[in-house]
Amino acid sequence: MTDDDWLRRNRANWDDRVRVHARSDFYDLPGFRGGACTLRGFELDELGDVSGKRLVHLQCHMGQDTLSWARRGAAHVTGLDFSEAAIRTARGLADDLGLAKQARFVTADVYNAAQALDGERFDVVYTGLGALCWLPDIPRWADVVAGLLNDGGVLYLAEFHPFTDTLGDDGKSVEVDYFDDQGTTWDEPHTYTDGPPLAHTVSVQWQHPLGDVVTALAQAGLRIEFLHEHDTTLFQRYPVLERTGPAEQPVFRFPEGHPRLPLMYSVRATKW
């Protein structure tokens, strides 16, 4: 499969998802306009104060996390995504919230971020949950991240743990090779939110072992400050998981007495 093939399929799939996501209860754009924050508590704690900083959010989708950082005091935020439909929605949100001067949204493939942003450097590169599986080349991604950071700048990455991809639907048995590095083509009629079926149903995704991600960042010249593995996730990935936490931002974990497994992870790394 060529770069054009996977990129074309994934872009068409995500352009189509925006049509559904923007109207979904899952993303709840009316609630976001009303003041809701989409960032998770551990992200706010681990990245810390962003006041006065310039932040770029790679693979920003419709821009809610990007704009949440602006609401948290970032001096200027930039969201980048390869879906023009997602970027149009993000720009509309910024206008609605009066943040258009504080927030910029750019349409580009993440691998072309440096060119799309004219070589600009940032204090923070942020990448949120569910992003890396759409990229085939993690060392190339890490080089992009390093190139976007000022000296002393910080990458903050929050992701679903790759071990979760090895388990079967019951969450109890290992069924997938953890080290499989071949892209998997999926043909799924629905996205992960509520809403009508998709017209463009085919996508291509990749697994990335945790060691590959951390090693790529280190080899790109970043110093790893921490790698945290979390025993909660944001949705009921397996039937055995139990819902807990506040109603407005619940999390899911294995029940008491069940062996705990890593469900998400987060990395903070600094460019020196």
UniProtKB/TrEMBL annotation:
Pfam families: Methyltransf_25 (PF13649). Residues 59-153 form the Methyltransferase domain. GO terms for biological process: antibiotic biosynthetic process; methylation. SUPFAM superfamilies: S-adenosyl-L-methionine-dependent methyltransferases. Keywords: Methyltransferase, Transferase. InterPro entries: Methyltransf_25 (IPR041698), SAM-dependent_MTases_sf (IPR029063). This is Class I SAM-dependent methyltransferase. It comes from Streptomyces botrytidirepellens. GO terms for molecular function: methyltransferase activity. It comes from the Bacteria.
